[in-house]
Amino acid sequence: MRPKLLLATNNQAKVREYKSLLLDLPCELVTLAEQGINISVSEVGESLEENARLKATVLAAESQLIALADDSGLEVDAWAVSRVGCQPAMPVKALRIGTESTTC
Is 50 in the same domain as 86? Predict the structure, then answer.
């Protein structure tokens, strides 16, 4: 019997992508739904890596399986305008957009 690897996502597009990429891995790839896991992990990390590690850790503990997680997030390649001036691109979570027009 092959060991199970939990795909720690409810996103079916990611599940399909993981299964395609990991086809030759000597593990049985299983989903949260297949394992009866229906919990949500808060993404409170300071980075995409921290959020992925948090999801993998929580869901591995819940399932008692090795878990694979990611947090691809959304980043905007642009300058954000804030009260302190122009800032380099940052995760969307960190953006604060005001009503005043400012040019960088």
Answer: no
User: How far apart (Å, rounded) are the C-alpha atoms in residues 65 and 7?
Assistant: 10
Q: What is the pTM of this model?
A: 0.69
Measured in Å, how far apart are the chain's first and last C-alpha atoms? 59
Q: Considering 24, 70, 71, 77, which one is annotated as catalytic?
A: 71
d(CA 70, CA 52): 4
Tokens matching residue 7 = 């795909």
Do 86 and 58 share a structural domain? no
Residues 8 and 24 in one domain: yes
pLDDT digits 0-9 by tens, 84-96: 555 555 554 444 4
Considering the domain architecture, whether residues 10 and 48 belong to the same structural domain is answered as: yes
Active site residue 71: yes
Nearest Cα to Cα of residue 36 among 66, 6, 69: 6
pLDDT greater than 90 at residue 98: no
Domain carrying residue 104: 74-104
